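# step 3/5: fold
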Amino acid sequence: MSIRRTAVILSIAAMVLSACQSSASSSPTGSAGPSASSPAAACKVGVAWATFQEERYGLRDEPGIKEALADGGAEYIGNDAANSNETQASNVEALLAAGINVLVLNSVDPEAILPSLQAALDAGIPVIAYDRELESSDVLFMTHDNVEVGRMIAREVTAVQPTGNYAIIKGQQGQTNPEFLRDGMQEILQPFLDSGDIVIPDGAELYTDDWAADAAQSNMDQILTANNDDIQALLSENDNMATGAVAAMAARGLAGQIKIGAQDGDKAALNRVALGTQVVSVWKDATDLGRAAGRAALALCQDPNIASVPGAVPGTTTGGLDTYQLYLAPVAITQANLQVVLDANWLTVDELCKDVPAGSVDGCP
């Protein structure tokens, strides 16, 4: 993890550079991309999505990939596994049969998908592990720095709630992102835990099947029951699960009483930040991540060597395999900087400011 934690966090500008460029065509974001007459024009990119359950993947990531590929004259083919390992294996098989040149793999389960990954590699198809790590030296891992996301969540919540009982709602057990996020949280929590100012009661830290809101609601209800509602803060590993946890709190008359931190920049969560019922939603510009993955796929169409992708840096997988990684930087959104997501057209003022008293928060007129 030491290499991962010290990996260079690339600027957004670096993400939008493309080695596939053969002429000075310009994308809607102003970044250079390959022209339709370049070799990338014959490139077919297959994307195997784990799920569109999370708001971001269908609404943010996929349009970003499509935009970058369209800029390069490449073809996009995508499918959704709906959180099913069996469906994703079939989906990858279908993409390989369709003659794709690059596979972007957003895995449901990092172990279950390994035979499908190997089939792609055996066929000579370069692979991008998108947002979820795969244990392989032969794939490019692209994500935001999720250890830093964990730090940001814990940093903002401990700043406003430096004492008391904390609950932690984690994502799907067996995936690596929950562990990255939890490692980052621990770095910030450790001094508070050592002093006894913050306590994580037994049973107050739970994994959540499929990162699902209803499962998170059940988890939070279980935690509150076990602790007689004596929980002062919640660190949720994404906004979707935070929404489920909020429902559990509301059912007990605890709405707005527990300090909440999460990530993804979901519209409902950002509205909670504006309302003051959620401390932070760490924003990972998923559209930029999608664009970066699209441009990386274009580069791999020209040169299948993952080390040749602009911005890729050496790193190690969780299991210790040498590989290449490309990280984007997250941004912690609090009431102090809501304008950031408005300026990015991430959501409308009406969506952000629903039920927020006029003029009570910067960004909400």
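# step 4/5: annotate
The chain is about 40% helix and 20% strand.
# step 5/5: archive (pending)
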